[in-house]
Amino acid sequence: MKRLRRVLIVLCLCLSVTVSGLPVSAMEKTGNEPADTAAEEEKTGTDEAEKKEETEGDDKRTEVPDTDTEEPSETEETEGKGQKERQEENTEQTKEEQTVQGTPEEELGETGPEEKSREEKETEKKAVLEQIAGPEGACFAIQSDLGRYQRSVDNGSSQQVNSVRYDKFYTDVGLGTSYDPQLAMGIKYIDHDNETPDADGKWRYVYCLNFNKSSPTGQHMTYQGGWTSRKIAYCLYYGAMFWEQPCRYPKYRTGDWQLDYFVTQVAVHVLNGEFTLSSAFGQIDDAAGATADEKALAKDRINLLVNDANDGGNYASFTGDGWFDASAQAAFRVTTPSDFAAVTDGYATGYSTPTFKTAYDLDMKEQITGFNVTTTNGVNVQKKDTKTYSDFRLFIKTAQYKSWQLTGKTVSTTVKATAPKWWGGGIYTAPSGSEYQDCVLWTYTTAGGSFTKTASFDKKVPKKTFTLNIQKKDAETGAGLTGAVFSLWAYDGSVYSKKLGIFTDKGGGKYSYTGIDYTKTKDGWFLVKEDKPPKDYHPEYVIYNNADKENYVKHGGREVKLTVDGFEWDGVPDGAIFKDTPVTPKADIVVKKTDADTGEILEGAEFQVREWDKTVKAYKKTAYRTLKYDAAAKRYVTEKPVERTDSNEGKFKVIETKLPEGYQCPWEKEIEITEKGTVTLNLEAVNHPERTLTIHKKIQVDEITWAHGNPTFLFSVNGVDIEGKEHSYHRVVEFTEDYVREHQTGGYVTLSTTITGIPAGEYKIMEDTPVMRYVLTDAVAGSENVSVVKKDVEMINGFMKIQADVSADLRPADGNVTFENHKTHFDKVSHNSTVINVIK
C-alpha cells in the first residue's frame, strides 16, 4: 500500500507539537507493508465458527472479566441497554462493512494477492483510512465560535471535533472486526476548546465508541443526554484528557502523549465491549509501524488501565451509576495574596490564585461553574482575566485605605467555588443521518446537583504611624534654634494625661517625633509642650492668637490633631513653628592701647569689631562695630554693645585697622560672648615700635687694589613679623677711595648700612654672593638679640672661608651685626659695578 501523504497540522499561533522527536506538522504517517499472501488468505478465509469459538474464550485472546458487581441504577440499566443495542448494531455494521471491503474469492483466484502492485495496496489502505478518519482537513481549518462563549467546560452545546492521524498500529484488516479490530486512528479533540475561557488554553480529547465506523473529524457532535459507564469515565479521568498532555495518573503514562491517547482510546473500546484485550493485543503485535518496545509499552499500559477500570475497589470517588462524584475528594484553595501596595487610584494586594483539586491531587478548575468572592465592605474585587475562576486581587480606593491605616484594618475575604457534583463521560452523537460513530468526552452533569467549597484568608491594612515635625525659631531673627526640649502628650477625653515621649532635636531648629500611633490617644488629639527653651531664650514660646493662648492656658502647650492627611493644628496658623524670644548675651568692649617697650598709652589707632558667620565658618569682612577713643579714659570703647545671635554664635574679633605712627604689626583679639545680660570686656592692645637693623662690612685697607674696582658687598634680610607676615630687604655697600682714606683705622675700614621701619619679628641676615676676590672670614653680633653660628668651609691663600648663619630677633629691640672679608686673589685687572634700583 502507498505511504500516507504528509498531514499538515496548522496549529494556533503556528504551534508545532513534537512527537517522537519530530513535529507533528512534519510527521509522515506511514502504514504497514502488506502481510504475506498466506497470512492474508488465512485472515480472509476465517469462517464464522472460528470467530464464534474465539468469542466464547477458547482462543488465547480472552477478554478480562468485568469485576464490577454493583447493582446498576435505573439510569445505568437504560444507558446499558442503549449501549448494548449500539454494540449489536455496530457488530452488524462491521459484518456488512467487512463483506463490502473483503476481496471476493474469485478475484483472489484470478490474480492472487501477491500479484497486486504496491500502488494498488496503498490505494486500498488509503480507502480504509479515509473511512476511518472521515473528511480530510488541517487542524482548525473549520471555523467555529461555539467554544468562545462557554464559561465552564460543559456539555450543553454542539462540539466540533478535529483530529490528527496516528497510524503506528495500523494493520491491513480493512475497517476491522471485533476479532481483528483496526487500530489506526486519529487523535481527536474539541476544536476551539482552548478559546473557552475556563478551558485555560487546553483542548479536551474526544474518544470514539465504535471503532469500525468513521471518525467525526470536522463534524459538530451533539450531546445526546447519555453517559458512559463508570469504567469508561475512569479511563477518561485517569487517562489522557487534554491535547499534548499525558495520562493524568502517572501509572498509565508511556512518555509519549500520542501513545497515551492511543492507550486511553483502546481501553475505552475494550471497556465499551467493542473488542477484547486479546484482540487488541493481536493487532498491536501485527502492526508494522510500531517498534517492539512501543508495542510492549502500549499493551502493558492498556492492560493496566483496563484492569484498574474493571476493579471495583478503584471507585471510591465514583457513584454506583457511573459518575465521578467530585464532591467526595474536592479540595478548593486560594493562595493568600501579597500585601497591599500602591497602584493607580488606590491600593491593591497581589493576585490570589485558586486551585480546585480532586482525586490524586489533579487540578480540575475548568469544572467550576460558580466563583464568588466576598470581602469587607469598601473593598473591591478585581479579576485578572475572563475566566470564571480567574485570579483576583483586592483593591481599596485611596481615601478609604488611608482611613483604615489610622487604626489598622483587617480585611476578611471568603471565596466560594461551585461545581456540578457529577462528572464523567458524556456521549455525543453525529449529525442526524450521518454514519459517524458516537463519541465520548469528559464533562459534567447537574443532574446530581452542585456542591460548594469555601476558602478564606485575611489581609491587613497595616496601621500607619506618623512623624510630626516642628521647628524652633528665634522670634526676632527667624533663625532656627537648637537645644530646646519638646514633649508629646496623649488625650484621655478631658485632659492630656499621658506623656508619650520627647522630640528628637535634628539640628538647625528642626525637631521630630516618629512612630505616632492614632490609637494611642482619643480621636487623634495630641499636645506639644515645650519643656525647656534653648539656651539664652525665654521659657515661654510666643503666643500667636487667642486659640493658641487658650491651648497654652488650659493645657500648657499647643494642640494638634492627626487625620488621614496628616496633622492639623487647632486654630493656629503655622502651628508647627514655635518661636522664642532670646535672652541676649551682650558685651561692651574697652581697649587699652600701649607701647610694648615702654607701656606708654598710645593714641591715633583705630579698632573695628568683626562678626562671626557660622554658615561660612569665618569672620565677616565688614565692621559690625567701630570703637571710639575716649580721651578722658584714654581707652577705645564701643558706643553700642555687641550681641550674641545664633548666626554669630557670640564670636567676634577685635581688629586694629589703623596703627599709631611709628608702629607696625596691628593687634587683634578673638572674643566669645556667652554670659547672659551685658558684660564689659577689658582688653589691652600692645604695639611694637618699628625696628632698625644695622649691618657693618669690615675689610683690610692694604688688600684693596683700586685698579680692580671699588669693593662692593650685598646683603639680604628675610623674616616674619609677629603677625606671621613675611618681609624681605636688600642692601649694598660700596667702598670708595675717598671713604677709605677718611675712615680707615688700624689698617681696617668699616662701612655700614641701616634698614629702618622693620616690623618687629624674627629675621635672617646673610651676605649675598661676595665681590670678586673676597671671601667671608668672620661675622660678629653687635647686639644681644643677634646670634651668629659660624662654620669653616675651606682655606684659601692663607684665609679660612666661613659660612655664617645670622639671626636677629627684632621683637624686643633693634639689631646690629658685622661681617669681615679678606681678599684672596690679586690676579689680573677687573672692575666692580653696582646699580641700585629704587621702587617708586
Number of continuous helical runs = 13
**Number of separate strands:** 45
Overall geometry:
elongated
Computed Rg: 58 Å
Question: Could you tell me the strand content as a percent range?
Answer: 35-45%
Largest sheet: 6 strands, antiparallel, barrel
N-C termini distance = 127 Å
Parts with pLDDT < 50 across at least 5 consecutive residues = 1-113, 135-144
Q: Strand sequence of the main sheet, in spatial order?
A: 3-4-5-16-15-6
* Mean pLDDT across every amino acid position: 82
Q: What structural category do the secondary elements indicate?
A: alpha+beta
Oligomer: single chain
Give a description of the structure.
The structure is a single chain. Among the domains are: 326-461; 467-580, Immunoglobulins (Immunoglobulin-like); 587-686, Immunoglobulin-like (Sandwich), CATH 2.60.40; 690-823, Sandwich (Immunoglobulin-like), CATH 2.60.40. It is α+β, with helices and mostly antiparallel strands and 840 residues long. InterPro entries: Ig-like_fold, SpaA_PFL_dom_1.
What descriptive keywords fit this protein?
six-stranded mixed sheet; Immunoglobulin-like; six-stranded antiparallel β-barrel; alpha+beta; 13 helices; 840 residues; disordered N terminus; 45 strands
